[in-house]
Design brief:
Number of domains of chain A: 2
Structural class of chain A: alpha/beta
Number of helices of chain B: 16
Shape of chain A: globular
Strand content of chain B: 15-25%
CATH class of the domain at 4-43 and 230-319 and 470-527 in chain B: Alpha Beta
Helix content of chain B: 25-40%
Strand content of chain A: 15-25%
Helix content of chain A: 25-40%
Number of strands of chain A: 18
Radius of gyration of chain A: 22 Å
Oligomer: heterotrimer
Largest interface: A-B, 43 and 44 residues
Number of strands of chain B: 18
Radius of gyration of chain B: 23 Å
CATH topology of the domain at 4-43 and 230-319 and 470-527 in chain B: FAD/NAD(P)-binding domain
Chains: A alpha/beta, B alpha/beta, C alpha/beta
Distance between the termini of chain B: 40 Å
């Protein structure tokens, strides 16, 4: 006899978007349950001790750039529920083998330091960066409204005009939105070292640096968020903890180790879910899925229950290569001491440091390799969070985490991934040692790498794609995951999307969950989550 | 962040969370502070090998399910905890590949004993039935109440003439070792080895004088071992959920710098990040005695006698810790073990827990001698394959395995850090020892494994001083109201409004809920809280 | 002689207890409410299978103030009285105890009578408890209209 539970709302997946939606539903008085496949909540908002006890590593999400605008943090007072943050002064840096000056991007309140750093290479670039950053910050509210509102279809013409309106005097014209981010960066900045940094920052956000018609993203998202990064004290997962606690405090239940086998339908209406162990959870009002699009529609709903259009569109949805990452996790005796620090010691205290990119060509070659299913020459973006948060490593030790861009999970065979796990980190710290002399094998107590195939197994990030869906013009904005599904509703009545396959995509902004609630609250006449003074 | 609570609890292990949940249900504002990024303490489940393989890093066996009042008071099953009581609970496999099996069904167990000794089978059945009869009564008296003194107990036992009424329970047990008890009542050396091993795994060393007193109780619940579906950590989630459902707050990564004492009263806690939290009513520590009184109390600050020198001396020098610890190997496996002994007893392949290799009390004693000299015994581990009873703890078709081996905290004269060098080698030896009994494990059945040494225990959970997962040795002099010292035996401390409620207290470590439940009685008395939870 | 489980019988039990403790020193302070729940087990003719009889006793300073049967369906009343102890077991066992052929401590140790409440107090007052149990099982002359155990 299988168990039967009854709720108003069932949320599939306790990733941060699912937690966010569930908390709002609970607050609105709906009896809500989250069903989570894994034993742990948080999805990509994950912190573990995967290598050695006491050394913490964030296996997925690293820096938190939206904490100042994320509605849930304010609406549920997550700081009272344990969320604390640290914002290092030096935010993003790139360092070089020959010890030439690094470029260090500082916090927005320290723009003069950023200027000084870039000006070592080019005053023009320094002026441009600072001005673009100021512009982007001045429209932060607008950008936040845009992020936390279900997407509206806007033509490239509108976008172009808007972009020109804000950045026109800096030489940005309407046609910039037709460009690739690389083309935009190349036109605005002349320094190869800075380009190398900015390309990487762009792809890290998931925007394919080489793809036409995504250039506006550099001016808005990248310039807005660059250097606004916080680290969650204790590790990224502390956000998931606070969100879960908000759920509990609002009466939401969470069932762990409960993979959903199918979404139950009555005609064309979602009425609940069935778990792998045959438990039935009835949903009197709605089911919302934080799982990716294909799992939700093709597997849980079932192809046979979809219209031709929805079946075809779902099947055509693409994962990767734009946001396929591998995570390195090193346990260290000492934090890296970079050769470039002799010019600017801040590079040793950078929140995020790029290692292995000498110039723009290295970065581009690296990204193209990963996108084209080839294993790139090891290079990484790295974080040593224990520099700011002593709890992240044992006393007098450091824990370093980093991201590699790697081919899609399916691009390599199991044996090939096994080999990557055996050797890639070791290859990388040979590279690292060329940038920081103390990064020898003797400084590494132990290490591990999380590869895209494991990400897929762990969190169902298909192909290891952090965004659960490629960032490309036809899968972005009101086109995500496809136009008919862009408003979080599906053709199955009572079934909603609330994960990163929907707008705006991957990243720890909780916008998918927040926006899904906005749509659901209208459909069911629930408490409005828009705070007028905030604007969204 | 809220900086004022009625009650501040230090440590979010199962005792801290349990106490917090009861107090929150009683209407108090409660915060539970946890140094790590995860709640649960010993209730920890991590993917130490590969994604999808859930390894219980510490607690694996839940033996007080339905015996401990919090299981029902806090409705932990409603909070998603699912316990399974394996029908084949455990087995011992001997060097000659014969095997003895403990079933959920005690008559079947006796039949397995009878293959070794008919007389012992009958004795065991009598012992079980007798002990099972008074298990509730004894637990109610000896575990789930603040402790009485040995003297009081002895007197009561003699007034009620318990010695005359019971074949197994008598006042003289307090002078006997479990070995002596077994020699007195049983004849077969393998049976004795199994029962002694069972005691040792529960923390009751078989060669420690006086521990025979606890042995009948262990026998009364020998077939009450449960596993938590989806990992032991799920219980931590459930307790946390109950806490948060009732307005309590868990804050992870909150490291205590000190307990604030004013006028010899605990009035709050200062965190390492400088935050000060005020406690309107009391502060409760569930971590070690050493941390609480040597690290958290600033004895210098108070110019007079905040703590008596005699007490400080005791804490510094006389806290008794287990003289042995546990070395673990966590395994991701593609096959379940197929034992040679299954020819003798097919059910060993279905046993949740298997003890390997001890066929006499002497063999066990020999290893204690080796360990006492900080030596590494030839592995005779106990192993558990949770996947046999938990389909969610490994990917389909795979198994999660656990090896536990008695081991010293320090190795030779090299101290505990020597484990970091030797863990891999000793881990392989443990696997080899297992494979000797189950040859299929020597082939390609093991996909990956990770070790977890006594040193790792203390690094991860510093409250487990010297790898002491029992948080204080179980001995006659460290029992009941004398645990951990005479001053602290009643959950109150020399500092007013500061209580101890962790596993350092009566009854002891393990997932008993006892320390929290009993401290709750004392705190309720002091604070005048109505005891809604003790419905008679 | 009083029939078992009648008002008259409770009075006798009460008097027997009070006689027993009359000369004792160090009687415990305070008042204690004790429930006795006798569950029909198909063996005892005094409580039929599927039925339960509930009794309440009040002990003050070691002295039994009253001892009475309460209706099974007055659950409300049951809840208003804050119980200190609850003894629950099969009717045939309680009958055997009253008849003096079953030792109450044995019954508790054997798990046949379940005891709920603060055990420490019972152990600390072992002498008084022993006296009370003896009074119940040995000092009352009981009539067994439907047969005496083993019936």
């Amino acid at each position: 006899m299988s168990k039967v539970y009854e709720y108003d709302a069932v949320v599939i997946g306790a990733g941060h978007n699912g937690l966010c939606l569930a908390a709002y539903l609970g607050r609105a008085g709906l009896k809500t349950v989250i069903v989570e496949r894994r034993h742990e909540e948080g999805g990509g908002v994950n912190t573990e001790e995967p290598v050695l006890p006491g050394f913490r590593h964030n296996l997925h999400a690293q820096y938190m750039e939206f904490f100042d605008v994320m509605p849930m943090i304010q609406d549920f007072k997550l700081e009272d529920l344990g969320l604390r943050t640290i914002m290092p002064e030096a935010q993003a840096g790139i360092t070089f083998k020959d010890g030439r000056p690094p470029i260090v991007i500082h916090r927005p309140d320290l723009l003069e330091m950023t200027h000084k750093s870039i000006a070592r290479y080019s005053r023009q670039d320094a002026d441009m960066y600072v001005e673009l950053k100021k512009r982007a910050m001045s429209i932060e509210t607008l950008l936040a409204v845009n992020l936390y509102t279900p997407p509206v279809e806007s033509g490239t013409v509108d976008q172009g005009e808007m972009t020109e309106a804000f950045f026109g005097d800096l030489g940005v014209t309407k046609n910039f939105v037709m460009k690739s981010p690389k083309a935009v960066i190349d036109e605005l900045f002349e320094t190869s070292e800075l380009r190398a940094l900015l390309y990487r920052a762009t792809v890290e956000w998931g925007f394919p640096v080489d793809t036409a018609c995504t250039g506006a993203a550099f001016l808005t998202f990248i310039m807005w968020t660059m250097g606004n990064w916080k680290l969650a004290k204790g590790g990224t997962h502390s956000l998931a903890k606070a969100m879960t606690q908000a759920c509990y405090a609002n009466g939401v239940d969470l069932l762990e180790s409960s993979p959903v086998e199918k979404i139950l339908l009555e005609g064309k209406r979602a009425v609940g879910v069935q778990l792998k162990d045959n438990t039935i959870i009835k949903a009197n009002k709605l089911v919302a899925s934080n799982a990716d699009l294909k799992q939700t529609l093709l597997k849980m709903v079932g192809e046979e229950n979809l219209s031709d259009t929805w079946r075809k569109r779902s099947k055509a949805f693409r994962y990767g290569p734009s946001h396929v990452l591998g995570t390195l996790a090193y346990c260290l005796y000492e934090a890296p001491d970079y050769k470039s620090a002799k010019h600017d010691p801040d590079i040793n205290k950078c929140f995020y440091t790029m290692v292995g990119f000498e110039d723009e060509h290295d970065t581009i070659a690296y990204i193209r390799d990963a996108y084209d299913d080839r294993l790139p020459k090891p290079a990484a973006g790295t974080w040593v969070n224990s520099l700011w948060d002593s709890t992240q490593a044992p006393a007098n030790r450091h824990s370093a985490t980093g991201w590699y861009f790697l081919p899609k999970a399916g691009a390599l065979s199991q044996q090939e991934w096994d080999e990557v796990r055996r050797s890639y980190n070791a290859e990388f710290y040979k590279v690292w040692g060329q940038y920081a002399l103390n990064m020898t094998q003797a400084n590494v107590i132990a290490e591990k790498i999380y590869t895209p195939d494991q990400m897929e197994k762990k969190n169902m990030m298909m192909e290891g794609d952090f965004s659960n869906g490629e960032f490309a013009p036809d899968q972005m904005g009101a086109n995500r995951p496809f136009p008919e599904a862009s408003q979080y509703r599906t053709e199955i009545e009572g079934l909603y999307l609330c994960g990163p396959s929907a707008y705006p995509g991957g990243g720890v902004h909780a916008a998918c969950g927040t926006n899904a609630y906005k749509v659901i609250s209208k459909d069911f006449d629930l408490l409005d989550s828009i705070v007028p003074s905030r604007g969204y | 962040m809220i900086t004022q609570y009625d009650v501040i609890i230090i440590g979010a292990g199962h005792n801290g969370l349990t106490l917090g949940a009861y107090l929150a249900r009683s209407g108090l504002s409660v915060v539970v502070l946890e140094a790590r990024h995860e709640e649960g303490g010993g209730l920890s489940t991590e993917e130490l090998t590969y994604p999808g393989f859930l390894h219980n890093v510490h607690a694996n066996y839940h033996t007080f399910v339905d015996l401990a009042p919090p299981v029902s008071d806090l409705k932990i099953r409603d909070h998603g905890v699912q316990y399974v009581k394996p029908e084949v609970q455990m087995a011992s496999i001997y060097p000659d590949n014969t095997a003895l099996v403990i079933y959920d069904d005690i008559e079947k167990t006796a039949a397995s004993f009878a293959r070794f000794s008919q007389k012992d089978a009958e004795t065991f059945l009598r012992l079980y039935k007798e002990a099972h009869g008074y298990v509730d009564l004894l637990l109610g008296t000896l575990m789930f109440e603040p402790p009485m003194s040995v003297k009081e107990l002895t007197k009561a036992l003699s007034v009620f003439k318990v010695g005359n009424r019971s074949q197994f329970l008598s006042v003289k047990l307090r002078k006997e070792t479990i070995n002596q008890f077994l020699d007195e009542h049983f004849e077969n050396s393998k049976i004795k080895a199994h029962l002694a091993f069972h005691g040792a795994v529960c923390g009751y060393g078989n060669n420690i004088e006086g521990l025979a007193i606890g042995f009948p109780l262990l026998m009364g619940k020998i077939n009450n071992w449960h596993l938590s579906i989806g990992g032991s950590h799920r219980l931590a989630h459930a307790l946390w959920r109950d806490l948060a459902n009732h307005g309590g707050v868990l804050i992870t990564d909150a490291r205590v710098d000190g307990i604030v004492v004013e006028n010899k009263k605990a009035v709050g806690v200062k965190l390492q990040d400088g935050t000060e939290l005020k406690a309107n009513k009391c502060v409760v520590s569930t971590v070690s005695v050493e941390q609480t009184f040597l690290e958290f109390i600033d004895r210098k600050k108070s110019d007079d006698d905040l703590l008596e020198p005699e007490f400080v001396n005791k804490v510094q020098n006389e806290i008794l810790h287990q003289s042995w610890s546990l070395f673990s190997v966590h395994l991701a496996m593609s096959q379940a073990p197929n034992y040679i002994a299954s020819e003798f007893e097919p059910d060993v392949n279905k046993a949740w827990v298997v003890n390997l290799g001890y066929d006499s009390l002497e063999a066990l004693n020999d290893d204690w001698d080796v360990i006492a000299k900080n030596g590494l015994p030839d592995p005779r581990p106990n192993v558990a394959v949770n996947s046999l009873y938990d389909p969610t703890d490994a990917p389909d078709g795979c198994y999660t395995g656990l090896i536990r081996q008695f081991a010293p905290y320090e190795i030779g004269s090299d101290g505990p850090a020597a484990w970091d060098e030797i863990s891999g080698i000793y881990g392989q030896k443990c696997i080899d020892a297992w494979a000797k009994f189950a040859p299929n494990l020597a082939e390609d059945a093991i996909l990956k494994w990770a070790t977890y040494s006594p040193h790792d225990i203390t690094v991860k959970l510093p409250n487990m001083v010297r790898g002491d997962w029992m948080m204080g040795q179980i001995t006659l002099s460290n029992m009941l109201d004398q645990r951990p010292t005479s001053e602290l035996g009643g959950y109150r401390t020399p500092i007013k409004d500061l209580y101890m409620a962790g596993s350092t207290q009566h009854p002891h470590g393990f997932i008993t809920f006892g320390p929290a439940y009993n401290a709750l009685s004392v705190i309720a008395e002091d604070l005048g809280i109505e005891r809604w939870w003790r419905e008679v | 002689m009083a029939d078992i489980y009648t008002q008259e019988w409770y009075e006798e039990v009460k008097n027997a207890i009070n006689n027993k403790v009359a000369g004792m020193k160090k009687l415990p302070e305070g008042t204690w409410q004790i429930a006795i729940e006798i569950v029909g087990d198909g063996v005892s003719p005094y409580v039929l299978q599927g039925q339960e009889r509930h009794f309440l006793a009040s002990i003050d300073q070691g002295t039994c103030l009253w001892y009475k049967e309460i209706d099974d369906d007055t659950e409300e009343q049951d809840q208003k009285i804050k119980l200190d102890y609850r003894f629950r077991g099969n009717a045939s066992k309680f009958d055997e105890i009253a008849a003096g052929i079953m030792d109450p401590i044995d019954a508790a140790l054997g798990g046949e009578i379940k005891v709920k409440g603060d055990m420490r107090f019972l152990l600390r007052q072992a002498d008084q408890v022993q006296a009370l149990l003896e009074a119940y099982s040995n000092d009352v002359s009981t009539d067994w209209p439907k047969g005496k155990p083993p019936y």
